[in-house]
Design a protein that fits this description.
Elements: H1 2-26, H2 31-38, H3 42-49, H4 57-66, H5 71-76
Length: 79
């Protein structure tokens, strides 16, 4: 059961990274500029985008705000 949960969590983290990358691109931000504007360290942002790091809710809120989106809209891919 634990392995299945880990795999599902990894998939969610990877999918979020993909959605985030598309949202950044749709807003025509460069990744370094966006990291600064969102108040998230560049290295952290890259790890999130690659699915290598799971952001906490505070970070997700910063990312959404930096994109001019609500958290629900970012998570749903509504940009």
């Amino acid at each position: 059961m634990g392995k299945i949960l880990e795999e599902k969590n990894a998939k969610v983290v990877t999918e979020f990274g993909d959605v985030l990358g598309r949202a950044i691109a749709s807003r025509m931000h460069s990744v370094p500029q966006f990291a600064e504007a969102a108040g998230v360290p560049y290295d952290t942002l890259i790890k999130i985008m690659r699915g290598a790091r799971s952001p906490n809710l505070r970070t997700v809120a910063r990312l959404a705000s930096g994109l001019g989106l609500t958290v629900p809209d970012l998570l749903a891919g509504n940009f």
